[in-house]
Design goal:
Radius of gyration of chain A: 21 Å
Mean pLDDT of chain A: 91
Oligomer: heterodimer
Largest sheet of chain A: none
Strand content of chain B: under 5%
Order of helices and strands of chain B: HHHHHHH
Shape of chain A: globular
Strand content of chain A: under 5%
Number of helices of chain B: 7
Helix content of chain A: over 70%
Number of strands of chain A: 0
Shape of chain B: globular
Number of helices of chain A: 19
Radius of gyration of chain B: 19 Å
Mean pLDDT of chain B: 80
Structural class of chain B: mainly alpha
Order of helices and strands of chain A: HHHHHHHHHHHHHHHHHHH
Distance between the termini of chain A: 34 Å
Low-confidence stretches of chain A: none
Structural class of chain A: mainly alpha
Helix content of chain B: over 70%
Low-confidence stretches of chain B: 201-207, 219-225
Largest sheet of chain B: none
């Protein structure tokens, strides 16, 4: 076996997760965590340029490579933020040093499962990876050991455990459908083989399988009505975990759904998965956008905003076609970058104010201009104001919906506007409201965490104005693949 | 002989389903544990039987895992947890027995209609196994919905998982069954024994989930700020 970037991007987090359990000092561990995430980033970038071929276990195509690159990038920037974040939490006595060893190890284990889910060619391995991601994040959500954190983790475990179980049932059905055509054993579970032969597969079983898979992996996407775990898990865990949950995990879950959607589309005779995804996407968008107004906990607020955006993305892929798929891919990227930036800013702000309550986090631009403006720009970007990349992708989604199913534009735009209003309201309040007091011995300011924050925001703004040619060509190729 | 093989496999599948109904109406935690252990035992027998008739030795590992972990280790451990934490032995359920049973029977009907209708191309044994497996999955879900107590929810989850294993062993030549059962076992073991019971006891002195549900999402402050 020749060593190639895929092996590196899998091995680095896997080995680091083991290594980090052996490091007693949390400060060394935090540095190692950054180092390991940096190495993964290098391996992920190498993967873009030196692309290995698809094997029986590892699938490499345009679609997953860009997601791997995005995943390791956000993983790296969040690890930079995480180091400062946990240091402050330990110094103020909110987190015990003992738990930190575990935290860093789980961080890398989580990165490993994310990358594994993305590059797995085998449907069973994909499932095991998503299950592993659930496990690692449940443990991290419960890290603070407050009653709220434990309830959030319990809810997360029960709901996603059931979701993941239904996804496995769907996977078994998928195999059952493929087995008469491809024979028993691994080929019938291998995505690339299945994809080339799926037109010969019994469409009725595929339909049934897809329903289970959509509900199962849809639970992890946080689609309404399966979203109940998401706000709690985001709000009660450590903020770096909220950033990677929103920025990475939800994308990977959507990726899993899309892989199966591609199989159904390639079959031809199976039901069109589009309408189901459109319905769930719209429901998520409208419901989450309306709920935004009543949220007063800042992390919960942005968690609902994540549900809203997952709804938009699912809707876009449900509409399908080259433009909507392109917009969906772009929106996945932009949401990932923007939302993790927002969570970085929110984490810092709540460490300064000593509260996650929006009323207590006001007037940030006057007291902490670097952080406050970062937060305001982030919220405006996620609301879809130009020149952010989110504006571009939402604009494309609306126009392509108008071309394909004009009536659906009404609920879509309504949902977008409702969400927009809530976001602007909160951005105004947090950025320019009456200045609230800091907590005693508060964190001084953003410090070095401003770097990942502004790096993400800069990428989002650049994407809104100018997308590099190769990236556009790449997204177009993937959009074509998605059908 | 083929008939005998088929009938036995079918019988074992049906027995797993039967024990699922047993789980639905039990009112006492220890009885619930015993029924769950029985279900795991029957599942192990079913896996071993499939391994034998299809000549797939890796299924023996699945059978062994089900037998050792789910039929023995987990029930014994849960038994001890219940005793040590002095959890009330009677479980209250959100629905009455009669209603639960009616819903359970309709779920079984639903899954038979669904699976039989859709999988006309597959082998008869596979179809019927899959129908009972889906029923077990749905009954496990029903149990998780109707029970308020954390221990019985975990048992509901594990019985749901038994249904999945039943489905996986029923489909001929399915790869990675062992890996999947291991992944599930790790999940359950981690959650059940390590983290949750320990902390739920530490924080609430009870395993009744109603105490968790006071928290509805919004609060003024973190307790420590």
């Amino acid at each position: 076996m020749v060593l190639n970037p895929v092996h590196a991007v899998l091995a680095v987090p896997f080995l680091s997760a083991i290594l980090l359990t052996l490091v007693p000092s949390p400060w060394v561990a935090a540095r190692l965590n950054i180092g390991a995430s940096g190495l993964s980033l290098i391996a992920g970038i190498a993967l873009v340029f030196d692309r290995p071929t698809t094997g029986p276990l590892i699938l490499i195509d345009d679609f997953n490579i860009y997601l791997v690159a995005l995943t390791v990038f956000v993983g790296f920037t969040t690890s930079l933020f995480s180091a400062g974040y946990v240091r402050f939490e330990v110094e103020t006595g909110h987190l015990r040093v003992m738990y930190l060893r575990f935290y860093h190890s789980m961080y890398q284990a989580f990165m490993f499962t994310m990358v594994l889910a993305l590059v797995a060619n085998n449907l069973g391995v994909l499932w095991v990876a998503v299950e592993g991601a659930t496990l690692t994040t449940v443990l991290m959500v419960s890290l603070y050991r407050t009653p709220q954190a434990i309830e959030a983790a319990w809810k997360y475990f029960i709901l996603c455990g059931v979701g993941i179980a239904l996804a496995l049932f769907g996977t078994i059905l998928m195999y059952l459908a493929a087995q008469p055509v491809l024979g028993g054993g691994m080929p019938a579970m291998t995505w690339s083989v299945l994809f080339s032969q799926v037109h010969r597969v019994n469409p009725a079983i595929l339909n049934l399988a897809f329903v289970f898979l959509l509900i199962g992996y849809g639970t992890k996407v946080g689609l309404v009505p399966l979203h109940a775990w998401l706000p709690d898990a985001h709000a009660e865990g450590p903020t770096p975990i909220s950033a990677v949950l929103s920025g990475l995990l939800l994308n990977v879950a959507i990726y899993a759904v899309l892989r199966f959607k591609m199989l159904l589309a390639a079959n031809g005779a199976a039901i069109a998965p589009g309408p189901m995804m459109v319905a769930m996407g719209l429901a998520s968008l409208v419901l989450a956008a309306s709920i935004l107004y009543r949220r007063s906990d800042v992390k919960r607020f942005f968690a609902y905003s994540s549900i809203e955006h997952m709804g938009i993305i699912t809707f876009a892929f449900g509409i399908g076609g080259p433009v909507a798929n392109f917009a969906g891919l772009l929106h996945m990227t932009m949401h990932s970058l923007t939302k993790s930036a927002i969570f970085i800013a929110v984490g810092l702000a709540s460490q300064i104010k000593g509260s996650q309550h929006i009323d207590k986090i006001q007037g940030m631009t006057t007291s902490h201009p670097v952080l406050g403006w970062g937060l305001v720009i982030g919220v405006l970007a996620i609301a879809g104001l130009p020149p952010s990349g989110v504006f571009l992708s939402e604009f494309l989604i609306v126009t392509s919906t108008y071309a394909r199913a004009p009536l659906l534009v009404i609920p879509l735009v309504l949902g977008l506007l409702i969400g927009f209003g809530a976001l602007i309201l909160r951005a105004q309040q947090m950025g320019f409201g009456t200045l609230t007091a800091n907590r005693p011995n508060a964190r001084a300011g953003a410090g070095r965490s401003a770097i990942p924050l502004y790096a993400h925001l800069a990428l989002v703004m650049i994407a809104g104005i100018w997308l590099p040619g190769p990236l556009v060509a790449w997204f177009q190729a993937v959009a074509k693949m998605l059908g | 002989m083929a008939d005998f093989y088929y009938d036995t496999a079918h019988l074992l599948g049906a027995l797993v389903l039967l024990t699922s109904f047993g789980l639905l109406y039990q009112r006492r935690l220890f009885a619930l544990l015993n029924v769950f252990a029985t279900q795991a035992f029957v599942l192990a027998a079913a896996a071993a039987w499939q391994a034998f008739i299809h000549g797939e030795p890796h299924l023996y590992i699945t059978a062994l895992l089900a037998l050792s972990l789910k039929a023995i280790v987990i029930p014994v451990a849960l038994h001890r947890i219940i005793l040590r934490l002095e959890i009330p032995r009677a479980v209250d359920s959100a629905l009455g027995v009669g209603m639960t049973m009616v819903i359970g029977v309709s779920l079984v009907t639903l899954s038979i209609l669904l699976v039989m209708g859709v999988t006309s191309g597959a082998a008869a044994l596979t179809r019927e196994d899959l129908a009972s497996a889906l029923s077990v999955v749905l009954l496990g879900l029903l149990m998780m919905i109707t029970r308020r107590n954390a221990v019985s929810q975990v048992i509901g989850f594990m019985s749901l998982e038994n249904g999945l294993i039943l489905a996986a062993i029923g489909v001929e030549g399915m790869p990675l069954v062992v890996e999947m059962s291991v992944a599930f076992a790790v999940m359950v073991a981690f959650i059940v024994f390590g983290i949750f019971f320990f902390h739920i006891r530490e924080r609430f002195d009870t395993l009744d989930l109603q105490n968790l549900e006071t928290f509805r999402g919004e609060r003024e402050e973190r307790p420590w700020s």
